[in-house]
Each structure stands twice: as structure tokens, then as C-alpha cells.
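We store amino acids, C-alpha cells; thus:
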Amino acid sequence: MEYRELPHGGEKISVLGLGMGYISGTTEEIAEVIRTAIKNGINYFDLAAAERAPYVGYAEAFAGQRDKIYTQMHFGATYENGKYGWTRDLATIKRVFEWELDLFQTDYTDMGFIHCTDDMDDLQTIKRNGIWDYMKELKAEGKIRHLGFSSHNPEVARRLLDTGMMDMCMFSINPAYDYEKGDEYGIGEVQERARFYRDCESMGVGISVMKPFGGGQLLDAKLSPFKQALTKNQCIQYALDRPAVMTVLPGIRNMQDLEEILSYAKATAEERDYSVIGNFTPQKAYGTCVYCNHCQPCPAGLNVGLINKYYDLAKAGDIMAVGHYQKLNRHADDCIKCGHCEARCPFHVKQETRMEEIAVYFKQCDK
């Protein structure tokens, strides 16, 4: 296993980590998967799940091995009803954190992350209602070793970097989200994302990567915006080659998924080589939203790229994406069908029809 050193702190973090969003099975099965991961050198674990049940399996696996692992806990994810929820209520956040510490029999988390901050209004809420002050207090007490955040939005993420207090962040990185084909297609958020990675590196802020496979879309030619499948090893290597990246956190379901991820450590250079993406032409992506936000600003205030991203992730089985969509200030049914986005889209996506489809989908999720 390869390890990378966190600039602020010096922790040696495995380049392969694990997300727990998709894991399932009995407590014993989950515990065995995590023990196997640790035996194979994985030491970094994100602790945001689709439901509460897997936590017990993780706790059993972590028992007696606290000095071998790094935990990434999210302040704003809640499981008080058994399923994943999202909150900005300070009392709830405090209650969840104390529950996690008690369950894992520890008195600290290595990484304390503001959970899923994707818009400016939400960032202001975090500052106003005491969440940020609470986390800084925990940092001073040693209950959080490193402050950080998770986000899908490079503009918001950059604002958090500007606090000068961040040591780590969680960001979605893969070839589809970073899509670019020459200067002609250096559009929208593409350069902003690249600049964010470089800023993290220059500021000594590490990145843990979520969604390395684009919610599974990049592994399926029918779903990929490139109309061609990539392998897991190609996607992992792509993420690891971005500036500031410490570790890649694929979501796994079971032991088979873990074994597939671990195969990266033994993969040849040819098996990891992702240079094939240089052959993907923009025309191959026509009709598919790649979340570039070249359509911004939307006259109705919609974050078109983020709405599309949450929709695609939700359809691919990411339960947490539903909650992330619901907390947006503007939703698909707020579309006024003015034609602005379709006129500006370089990939000719029919967003007005797409917004109708997305609105129906998420309304069904509310039932």
C-alpha cells in the first residue's frame, strides 16, 4: 500500500481509503470487510453512510485498532431515525458526534468535516448558528485533530479554504466532473476546479476523493458522458494524479467490492493508464450534462450542474444525493423554461425537459 503524508500534521494516509455509503450485510459481514481492509493497509475511513446500521460493524472492526486508523466524521450528517439525514441544528450535531465517539470507543476524530456545504447561504448558516464555533472549540480541546469540509462546489470550497483553518477536505473528482477537451472546451467550472486543486496543494490542504467513479456512471458505457467505460483502476489513478489528493474513497458494498479496490495496489502501469480519455471528443458527450455550469447564471437562480449531478447520483443508488438535492435553495420545478441554459450549453443538453424529469423523480422520493 502506498501512503501520502498530510502536510498539516504528518499523518501517513493510505492512497486507498473507504467510503461507507453503500456497504450492507450483517454486522459480522461488515466488520470482516473492514478488518480485511485494515489488514491490507487501508487506514482512512469516511464515516458518512446511507443508514445507521453499518456503524455497529465498523465499531466492531475498529475495536483495539484505533491507533491504526484515521476517521473522517461529518458534522451535519445525522442518523437519529435510522436513515441518513442532513441537519444544521447545532444540538443535533452535538448529539450525533457524542454518539459516534461513544460507539467507536474513542475521544476524538482525526478529521472533523463540515458536512456537504454546497451553496453560499448554507455557508452563512454554518457561521451564524454556532456550528463553526463549536467545531473550532473541539479542535482546541483535541476532540477534532484536523478541521475540514466536504463539498461539490469549488466556489464554496474556495471560501472555506480562505478561513486558513482547513487541513483536509472531501471533494468529488473524476474525469467526467473535470471534463475538458482543449482550450475551446475549457468551460464553466473546469478551470475553477483545477485552480481549487492547485490552491489546496499550495496551502497544504489535503483532499480525500469522493465519487471517483461518478456514482458508477464512468464504469458503464451506457451511462458515461463519454459513451465509453473506464475501469476502477483508471479512475483511481486519475484522482490520485490531481494536486493535493491524499486518498481516494470508493464506496463499497461487500467483500467482493473491497477486493476489486485492493487490486489497484497490484495493478500494472498499463492497467492504471487513463490516457484513453484524451481520445474522447466533445461530440461524444453531446446530450449529456457534465455539470460544467457553462449555462450559469440561471435567471431563476438554479444551480443547473449541481441539480443534474444529484439526480444522476440518486438514480445510480446514492441515497444521500436525495437529501443533498432537497436542501438546495432552488429545485428543478423552479425552472421557468426561459431557454437561457439550452442556448449556452456546449453539449446541447435539453435542460428544460431534463428539469421536468428531475422534478418528477425527486417528488416521488418524498413519498
Summary: Residues 286-365 form one domain. The chain has 14 helices and eleven strands.
